[in-house]
Structure formats: structure tokens, C-alpha cells
Amino acid sequence: MGIAERKKRHKEEVRASILEAAWQLVVQDGWQALSIRKIAEAIEYSVPVIYDHFANKEAILLELTKQGFRKLNEALIKAKQQAQSPEEQIEAMAYTYWRFAFENTAYYQVMYGLGIPSCETVNQISELSTFSELILEPIKELIASGKHPDTDPFLKLHTFWSMLHGLISINMMGAEQHKEELNQMVLKDFIRGFISGMKA
Amino acid sequence: MGIAERKKRHKEEVRASILEAAWQLVVQDGWQALSIRKIAEAIEYSVPVIYDHFANKEAILLELTKQGFRKLNEALIKAKQQAQSPEEQIEAMAYTYWRFAFENTAYYQVMYGLGIPSCETVNQISELSTFSELILEPIKELIASGKHPDTDPFLKLHTFWSMLHGLISINMMGAEQHKEELNQMVLKDFIRGFISGMKA
DNA sequence: ATACCTTTACTAACACTGTTAGGTAAAATA
DNA sequence: TATTTTACCTAACAGTGTTAGTAAAGGTAT
């Protein structure tokens, strides 16, 4: 039954080429300029073929979002592994998150920039649980060894993520009035405060 | 020359009705569902009339964004006036900002949610300077009376705004997994840390 | 080998979208 | 009264997401 296999393989190739073409278009002209017809032209197939692989345009963007989180998670895992203490892990991950956002602005904007994603959309991103777990672990360690071991780790995770995201998104939209170094300082300041806030 | 006046007045009425209709549509179905034709139908004029008042659709959204910031600024001014010390002013403004976001999610999403606004767009929002000044003032006071009077107030303003925005936007997209009270606590925690971070 | 069915891919259309060119009729000016 | 300006419209252009219907090709069963 090699035939069915070959077909399946081919189908997955087409699916991958759709995502690849979509991604290239997003990087080139921004996600607002992405269109089904442009994708179809890029992969040299007719438009309806795309709907054999994705329910709609949103599903394609959702897949790119997932890709983005997978890539982010990878980078975070690597950063975490190279650090030893929970403090260093958190610090390294914060910097990595920041760097990911600015080295992959296209990804970051797809991940967070399509309007504010609805709850249903967020729940479809299974990669988020890995992301949470990754950061939650050193936070828990830090809390356990700190002076307030009854602190809610989810609260701290939430804070960490929120503030990092806020820093990045405000920074992305107004890079003129606030200099680069300034933001690096804000980031540094935040990380220090965040970590010491869990110890004491 | 009452005629020209009457005409001018009428023209401004139409302009206002465009914004009103646009706003109503945004509140009803979200900003992604806003269309020029729907606005035209609502105001009972043909489509091209809208282009006599606004260069394009983006200009309408930009005006709504400005309206949002004006409303936010108003609320912040009121909150600031009712508080005495810089600490209380900052705290009150943070809560007011938070409340504004969740009582006017439509505004907040127009203000921040249309993709990540470009630098050029941000520069067109003159209301932002009022917003900055409003928060900058108590920050400066607090820094001056603190132990590190050479702290950059812009850095602190940037931090304040970023983290507040991050808190809100992360919260808006995932209200299921994290409870309401949790976020109130995160907010409280942040404000306390922010203020004490400038004193000491 | 013939008949059948499923898969694959297409063209063409529907119902929208933002935007604008061009025309008409009314109102203001000369 | 003649002319110009304005106010407003219809109709179109070029694009969007999405889908109905069709034709051909591939594999399966009789």
C-alpha cells in the first residue's frame, strides 16, 4: 500500500508549502496583506486547494501562531538549559523572550497582533501549556526557597508574562520617542524586581 | 453670511454622525466588522460622502482611537484630582486605566488592537502627550522625594504604561484560565512594587 | 476490460471589501 | 439669467474570503 502513503506524503507537502508561502508573504508585507489568492499563486495551485488543507484563513494564521510558540519554546528551553539557578533561568528566559520578539517581529505580531485574540483562539494553542510550564517551574523553585512559600506561582507567571509582553508591545509601537538602551534598562529593572519580589 | 455657517455646521454634523455610526458598529460587532458601506447605510448617505470627511477607513479608526485616549485622559484627570499624594495619584490612575480598559473593551481594542500600530500612526495621536504628562508628573515628584533623585522619569513612565498594558492585554485574551481576583492581585502587587521601587 | 467510485484539481461565481472616476441636479454667485 | 460651485449620487475597479459545481485522473471491484 505504498500508493496511499505517497499520496499522504504529497498532501502534507502541499500543506507545508501553503504554510511556507503564507509565512513568506507575512514576513514580506505583514500579516494584514496576506491573502488566500496570493498563497495560491505562490504554491502554483488554484484557490480551493487551500481549503482542502485549512478550514479558513484564520486556521492558517492560527497554525503560524502555533509555529511561533513552538519556536519561542525551543529558544526558551535552550536558554533555560544553559542557566543553573532558578534566578538565572528566569533572567535568561526573559531576555530570550525579548530577543525572540524583536528578532521575529513578524511572528510576534501574528501571535499577539491580530486584534486581541479571543478566548476560544487562545485555547486552541496547545503550545501555551508548554510555555507556561517552562516558566512556572523555576518560579515555583524560587518561591519555595523564599520567605513567602505560600505565594501563588500562577500569579507570578501571569505577572511575568504580562509585563514582558507589555514592555515589548509598547516598545514595538513607539520606537522613536524612547531609545533602545532605555528599554533594555526597563527590562533589566523589571527582571531584578520580579526575582527579588519572590525571594523577599 | 449665515449660509456658509449653516453649511459648515451641517458638514460637521455629517462628520460626527459618521464617527457615531462607526463607533456603534464597532461596539456591536467588533472593529474587524466595520465597513464603509455599513457606515454609509447607517447615516443614510452614499458611500463617497464618507470620503469627503475622511481620507480612508484608517482615518476613521484613528479618530476613534483619539476619542478613546481623550476619554481615558478625562478619567485619569478626574482620578488624579481626587487623590492627594503622588503615591495615591499613581495608584488611582493605575486602577482607573485598568477599569477603563475593561469597561470600554471596544475602545481599548481599537486603541491597541489593530495589529500593532505603526510608529507613524502613534505619532498622529496627539492625545498621547497629555496622557504621558499626566502620569509623568507624580512620577517626577515621587522620584524627587525618594532616595534616587537621578532616576529617569521617562523610564518609569515607560515601565508603568508597558506593564499596565501587558497586564490588561494578556488578561483580555485569556480570562478563563486565570480568575478575576487573581488579576486584581497582580495589579495591586504591581502598583505597590512600582511605587516602592521609586522611593527606595 | 469495463464499470464504478473516490480523490484531486479546476473554473466560475457569490457576496463582500476599500476606493474612486464621472455625472447630475441643486444651490450660490456673477 | 448665465455660470460656477457644491453636494451628492450611480457605477465601476480591483481586491477580499469562501464555495458550488465540474471534469479528469487514479485506484478498486466486478
UniProtKB/TrEMBL annotation, chains A, B:
Q: What name does UniProt use for this protein?
A: TetR/AcrR family transcriptional regulator
Q: Where are the transmembrane segments?
A: none
Q: Does the keyword Transcription regulation apply?
A: yes
**Residues in HTH tetR-type domain copies:** 12-72
Gene3D superfamilies assigned to the protein according to its UniProt record, in alphabetical order: Tetracycline Repressor, domain 2
Provenance organism: Pontibacter anaerobius
Matching entries from Pfam families are given as: TetR_C_33, TetR_N
Specify whether Transcription is a keyword of the entry.
yes
DNA-binding region ranges: 35-54
Q: Which UniProt keywords apply?
A: DNA-binding, Transcription, Transcription regulation
Alphabetical list of InterPro entries matching this protein: Homeodomain-like_sf, HTH-type_TetR-like_transc_reg, HTH_TetR, MT1864/Rv1816-like_C, Tet_transcr_reg_TetR-rel_C_sf
Residues annotated as signal peptide: none
